[in-house]
Amino acid sequence: MANEYVLPELPYAYNALQPYISEEQLRFHHDKHHQAYVKAANSILEKIQLSRKMSGEIDIKAIAREFSFNVSGHILHSLFWENLQAPQKDNLPNGDADKILKQEFGSYERFKEEFSKAALSAEGSAWAVLAACPVLKRPIIMQVEKHSLYINPASPILLVLDVWEHAYYIDYKNERAKFVEGFWNIINWEMVNKRIKEM
């Protein structure tokens, strides 16, 4: 059993996602922002343990909210890094991903349109998410705000896109649309297929 959260290493070099995500942007996002969520989550665990040892009071409401925010940030970022790969020519879904997207959305183009709109219309600090509804066994698109708001419980995540400004500001300034368009060139569809098999 792990005693603390750990920042995962990227499964590719820091410059592997260029030109869509620069090395500077990726280092800033992974090494600073993601690391901050890991550090905060571990710090909260330490506070809880110390309070229990000292028989002190715990503000459960505040602690639970802060913990959820940071742990969810860590988990979503970990999934996000795995979703990416070096740019591929004609980067289109294949296998199970291609099958379920066509079944649900009619075509890949329709899915891309709906997912992009979710990413572009998400308010403030948010994520666009493709998840699998555990009840209907169908893919669904969600917008998740601040890592942990409006997420469907127990829905396995197949694909995520971070649209917090820290994910793209160095490369794209405030032009989220250009960042979202670039995202389609670096999706690791084999990872999406792997997650579909694990549903």
Can you give me a brief rundown of this structure?
This protein is mostly helical and 199 residues long.
Explain what the structure shows.
Helix content is 50%, strand content 11%. It has 199 residues and is mainly alpha-helical. It has two domains: 23-82, Fe,Mn superoxide dismutase (SOD) domain (Helix Hairpins, Orthogonal Bundle), CATH 1.10.287.990; 95-197, Iron/manganese superoxide dismutase, C-terminal domain (minor pseudopilin epsh fold, 3-Layer(bab) Sandwich), CATH 3.55.40. It has a three-stranded antiparallel β-sheet with strand order 2-1-3, with helices on both faces. The mean pLDDT is 93.
Report the major sheet.
3 strands, antiparallel
Radius of gyration (Å): 18 Å
Supply the number of structural domains: 2
Secondary-structure class? mainly alpha
List the keywords:
mainly alpha; minor pseudopilin epsh fold; 7 helices
Please render the helix and strand layout as text.
Blueprint: H1 23-53, H2 60-82, H3 95-105, H4 108-121, E1 126-133, E2 138-145, E3 157-162, H5 169-172, H6 176-183, H7 189-197
Antiparallel strand pairs: 1-2, 1-3
Helix pairs in contact: 1-2
